[in-house]
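Notes on consecutive records. When two proteins share a document, each keeps its own sequence and its own token line. Never mix them. Below: protein one.
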Amino acid sequence: MLSQFTAEPASRWSSLAGFIAIPGVYAAGRLDADSEGLLLLTSNGALQQRLTDPRRGHWRRYWVQVEGTPRASSLEALRSGLIVQGKRTLPARAAILRDPPQTPRDPPVRHRLTVPTSWLQLELCEGRNRQVRRMTAAVGLPTLRLIRSAIDLMDGEPALSLSGLEPGQWRLPSERESKRLQALLRRPESHSLGPGG
């Protein structure tokens, strides 16, 4: 489905409106129609802006199934930043994912018997269009499956994550999570980006 509440004419994808019957909310950030994972929905425009502003540097964690076997040089290139569409990406956090998600994808990813697949955990603090897919392709590891697993609010507490949610499920934030999200709006502006940001 599309990570929006308005259907697009002639699109083969449905929208969130068919799954979430809460009026006046919209996604704080998007996922490509062929990606999966965590979406934060809000009715607060200032909060939506704060979470999606690239200057804020909220780290987003992705689990990425790729075609091929990552080499140390591939991981280092992802960590250092590389040229994608003529512009260098910010440094990322990249590691082999030893315990990949077990939930099957529907439809399943394509498999080639002669090509191995691997899982990476990739964390970015920027969100360009199809950035993860373009970064993994740039190091010779085409993305087969992409799951956003967490969004860090950068407040020293655990990131908001998919923990406890099955595919297609949603929940309201806890009281503590609501307070943390509201606190973002009171936090002084910071422009610190990068792995230590």
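Protein two starts on the next line and is unrelated to protein one.
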Amino acid sequence: MAERNSIRVEEIHSEKRRDLARLNSWLEQLVGRNGSDLLLVPEAPAAVRVEGALSAIGETSLSGDEIERCVLPALADHARQEYEQTGIADSSYRAEGVGRFRINLHRERGRAAATVRALPSRVPSLEELRLPSSVRGLAGLQRGLVILGGATGSGKTTTLAALVNVINQESARHIVTIEDPIEYEHEHNKSLIEQVEIGIDAPDFPTALRAAMRQAPDVIVVGEMRDPETARIALAAAETGHLVFTTLHTTDAASTVSRIADSFPQERQHSIRAEMAMAMAAMLTQTLIPKKGGGRVPAAELLMVGYGARQHIRKNALQHLHQEITITRKQGSFTLEESLAQLVFQNELSREEAMTRALHAEDLDALLKGKGF
């Protein structure tokens, strides 16, 4: 009996190794094509996203059970437990000889599905990201809350890592990052960097952020401001002299302020806006746009928060924040329309494409006409 049990256990381990090898094979193809994501969806072949476009890398459709068997062995223990309890889990994964990846295993229509994102082996520079030059100034701030907004896949996390890298190269500071999962691994340079992964090093963002406040950090990076408690602690950290970076799924400065304030009960929203007015240092939003000739290029908007913006935030007069960008241009602010116009001038975007991306089309039209476009 014991021998049969031992054989069965070995068979199970062998099956898990085969399933994991299948996942690794897909990931090798993803990396070989310089793709960004592997998508595993029931009733469809495995597919990869390359420069924003999807293409199949298998001929046979997958079942939910197949996807679950292939992905579960790659999850960290905490993520596997989370998936069993909630049906959703995020985890980092290192495939030997292939690279690092971020896995999201979830369920749709009662079946397992997964998205696996390739994580770069090094942190890119801001120059490589092609962001406007004044974005670099965010790394020189000494205190306050800096929020990076944008849709999923807009490059927020990469920009955040590039800013941390600038600080690391230029300043002797203590940096604590809190991420779920860790996407970019930093090496100590002039700064000392501690990287906390949710689920492995701390149970959640609020707990990790409270702990970070006791670690004498100069800079705190919160991978995502997911809940009011995280927002409250981040605001308190920024108000007490720390430089705090975080991300939100927002498209401009007004929606960034609204998203945070609206996450609190109505009776708290006035006081939260007052805290934001004191703590906020800058709001950067960005998007990635397909460019002429292939690839993608970022367009961005930056508001350096000054006296006027603080008054508008406090009074909830958020419709006036856009005009503050023009007023604070000398401090580094720029509009999305200025960023788009520059891309048109550089012949990377068509006029028509830029117009569809603008939030204030009349402003972009005036900029383009001024240059004869």
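For the record: The longest strand covers residues 280-290.
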